[in-house]
């Protein structure tokens, strides 16, 4: 753990007082000089021999700097046309000293257990000839530094380097040795990641591009003239880095500067943020025997697998019935990520799989069980009731919402359709379906599910006795899981270090796992893991990793030796071995067969006691039909055959065709038993051959119960029983996205339509019987080769279905006759916001004539126009009544009999940014990121009017001109810097002003409504008149930091000893609050106080940062309440009269929203942890409410204080605040 004095950073030269040379040393030509460009002192280190001219910190090698910062920053400039060398000695947690060196003298990366050497590639100055040359050749200038080299800020993540390249844990920086030839300004260490391109306001806002990144401190900054760009003058290099590099494992400036590493834990101590491609020397690891026998650390609990969810201690309140202004079907749209629900659940012990989806597309699986259906309540006297008839959502079960228990899955295929494995002595088949792994019992058809992956499963592998199952998922950060197959428990999860995984192989013992795939540069990579400790609660450990230029289609561990592997691919067959911690390979001499595309391989089966274990024959198949027999021990081709189609095969004689013979059978797979060989081919045939391949052989002599499992490119899993010669399909699947489905309740049938242009009808209950086994039955399949079906529905009383196509055609199909009944060209009503009712005469005729119906008349009976494109609909059997959902976030009740439509639910589809109220609480207005401002009637919660979207809102207070009536004006701030005023009575825009050059982030009215105060993203506060549309003045005190809050209140004229009728404040993202007194009639606006709240230093920074929020206390307007990212999680109360903080209320988390009740001394605080806390300041009590599905981003008491509105992403919850 870093020492406190080293935060936020250490200026090493200043700390050691380099200019005195008492705690540092110099040798050779080392001089101090003034650099005109940097306007400060730098040190020049020159000399023909770098080892004889250097600056060393600290003075002797026996001393240690003891600097624990993860990042080392070196501000230096290589000398033109010269070489330089830098040595860094770092200590690991096990007291091992590792030297990290980098130099433009090094031509390639080299590595030992105690020394890492990185080539440094010098970049050229912008606009120079060298830069142009580098761009044209698509490479940097390797070797000597160019003549126009620039000053460079090099940021090295020392902890990540040790973790990634040597699998060691970083402790501290021991010493630094800077050798000729270079100029150096300074050296810094820190636990923070600094970036010169990130400004302070951007870091405070925690934009996605700057997560975990801080602006460069003044001491580290290079001077930048006004109007110039930092990156045009200097180089900024992070290592390890993201950009494309040449060669690999070199230190150089990338083409772009994305955040290359976050401040989260790396390496063995934590999850790696990103995997880096490693060159050959990096793969030098300790021996295989040491890895297998040495003890390992205990595994960390996987964050993606929740075996149980702990209960949350309950206070005086519980989850309650909820009124939500939301279309629940749409509420997870949008780019905002959201986490899991923290509603408590009971521990899982029923084996059920419960699934719910994140908004960001990830799926988390929880095994949970519902204890009771009882509705829980129990409100305190001062608690909040959720109110409203809009959507009554009873939390009968304390589970994430929505919740489903998975029963059956129809479908097959993850990243590909090549993976299906036998288990349980041939009685169970295991295969993937998207992110799930399914084990189906062949005798009963019962399915077990292995859930946990968040993307398509890319590969599967069993150990020898089928007790351990390994699985990998696709994606840039591919994740591997190891399962205990009998119990279905995930034993461990780890990152693969590959961009994508294509093949896995488990050793027979289960102690070694090998995988192959591609790194992020598209280069083939092979990785070997030790999995011995996984079954004992430990974790998988990478033994070796190798990059190769050869193609690999299949990779298998030899069943007789865990340290040996074989692979095949285009133009190659290779033998691999792990020895002395390194993974090495040698090619098989293929001779005339070297240009074949090899697809699969298998070892001969059986064992003879008079043969050595490695004296085996390896069979390799190819797309040209060739099957090579390779002597594994001699690493040579023993025999070659070519399998030809039946019409070209020469009787029953042995194949001895030349390489250039006619087209062979394109082979995709091969599998051997002691007596036979099975092949899977491109022509769709599964063939069984004798081991001499003399003929296709399925006749007598096959051992009992010998079966062959195969998969097809069309999404089928099949099984061939050799003894009975029966073939059956275990599972079928669509080959593209399923676009629609319908269930026939009476017949227990399911119809699906897919992007693969097929319509399939499945039997959901009964099982197809074949080979004495039970499988899911596909009853019908229809294909539309040139059209895509997009919607489908069963006819309620007849075996007829209607299918709609993307062309607007609707076809009715008779299942009884298996034929097309009618085709109708209809208007596509959903795209025009219309829902339409059609009368199809053929349907009526079916009831009388059955399949002999011939009528083709279609009549549009009724039509209704809704507020958005129709995306879903469900009607009763008679189609008289139904529910329709639209893209506007609304649910409509449709009654064709009465020709009426009633909007049941209306709400925002995306995040709600603001909620404001009319002075007398008759209405409220909301704005969201879905592009709308909505005004609601509070009595009925009905939508009254809707305007175009904005970023912030304010409701005009009541003015004398309204004659006691309620104000009907809303002012809205927009991203283009404009402010627009809307009249609700006329439902039109009255005024548009443009006081800001950037987005408006906060709004407020003066107490009399005659002035509009607006804050911008750039920190400027504008004072504007709604009468004239003119901007009166602009305040620049918060410049460069976005304004979060503007709050205004009335003031007694002599209060605080200052004349003025308005008291208002502005709070900005940099934790500063300004308090002002104004008299707008006299054009007076005076700053009376300035509050600045410190932030903690160190690496533990929330991401994103909590907002800085402030408000005047309604019970004492001379007191300001403040919450934000500070030294403590608390509410601070600052007295404007006493000029100090007079009270602190501790909080469990940093606040994300704040509201103070106008009616009583009550405070509502929302948190990112989806918790709402109500604090009664008078009684000294507090209560927590846990009914939100996301961050509580808004809290707003109504003017009377009787209701509290809270917003959680796109949901608005309305609470009734009970009086004492």
Automatic annotation (TrEMBL):
PROSITE patterns: WD_REPEATS_1, WD_REPEATS_2, WD_REPEATS_REGION. Residues 249-284 are annotated as: Disordered. Residues 911-1219 form the WDR90 4th beta-propeller domain. GO terms for cellular component: centriole; cilium. The keyword Repeat applies. The keyword Disulfide bond does not apply. It holds the Pfam family WDR90_beta-prop_4th. WD repeats lie at residues 731-772, 905-946, 993-1034. InterPro entries: Beta-prop_WDR90_4th, CFA20_dom, WD40/YVTN_repeat-like_dom_sf, WD40_repeat_CS, WD40_repeat_dom_sf, WD40_rpt, WD_repeat_EMAP. Keywords: Repeat, WD repeat. Residues 3-121, 149-195 form the CFA20 domain. This is WD repeat-containing protein 90. It comes from Phrynocephalus forsythii. The lineage of its organism: Eukaryota, Metazoa, Chordata, Craniata, Vertebrata.
